Amino acid sequence: MNGEQKLEAAESELADAERELDKALHDIQKAEKDIKEALKEKEQPHAFKVIVTYNGVQKPFEVRRDEPVARLLDQAKQAFGPIPNAHLLGLFNQHGAELKDDQTIAEAGVAPHDILLMRPSQVRGG
């Protein structure tokens, strides 16, 4: 093998190594992204349990981060049985802030194991 052939072989090996390096870097970036998503899912699971309290009685509910607060409110009204003036009720967090029906569970700031209160709303009317 003469010098020119050695140079061509070395350049070909270099090109192969650079392609492998690019693929490895891409694989590392994908793995890092997958790890971040897995950690986020672990910290903020897509589905989780919350407690709704009404008149001193607590009941567990499974919610999804992307479902509307109104869906949980409807489930809670049904679970607690016939409630007079149920249309006047809303869900409140432990700080006393009312959750907006049109927000998702995530947008409302509800987290796993939160305790929510179902009580008359300030803004609902018949």
TrEMBL record:
Entries under InterPro entries matching the protein: Ubiquitin-like_domsf (IPR029071)
Record protein name field: Septal ring factor EnvC (AmiA/AmiB activator)
Positions of region (Disordered): 1-21
Source species, domain of life: Bacteria
